[in-house]
Amino acid sequence: MLFALLLVGTTRADTVAGSIWEGDPTGATNATIANIPVTPANITFTTNSPINFAVGALNYTIGDFLSSGTGSTILTGAGDLGNTMLNTFFYFTGTVTVTNGETFTVTHDDGLTLVIGGLTVVNVPGPTAPITTTDTYTGPSGNLPYQLVYGECCGAPAVLNISLPLTSPVPEPSSAMLLVGGLLALGAGFKLRYSL
After folding, report:
1. pLDDT at 170 (0 to 100)
2. pTM
3. CATH number of 10-171: 2.40.50, 1.10.3230, 2.60.120, 1.10.1760?
4. Which residues of 82-117 are buried (b: 16+ CB within 10 A; e: fewer)?
């Protein structure tokens, strides 16, 4: 049984986990780490990395925004997907592998703050038209924790695109299946041994 339990864990796939708070004009107009809400998120989800979302005025809902990315999966709050993107606040956390001097692109409308390893790398927290910038990471190289906040405050479009390969720890389905299989085999062996 110990062997089966050792197979369970998490893996860092090319998946990012995110949280969304609705009706948050403070965070949506000032997307900073300090404005991360303390209340539970309205929606939690995962999506493939790199992050790439964009919607216009005709499809300005949370569900349309999340489905514009690649492989988004809703974990909680599916009933809120038809709600407007107006005054939404997003929070992503996990790890990213970066090297000193690495350049990457960021496109966003509205505000965005990205912190890697405690270093603020992108700091444009207020409302803005869609802008694309090329940034250069100047911190230490390695696999470092990140925090990313994004606020959508002021109407369509809504855009969030970051070329960095951000990742979040997610359960590895194959490990869970190995655990179940191992426990079933162990139980069958135990039953067979004591039924003889």
Report:
1. 59
2. 0.81
3. 2.60.120
4. ebebbbbbbbbbbbbebeeeeebebbbbbbbbbbbb
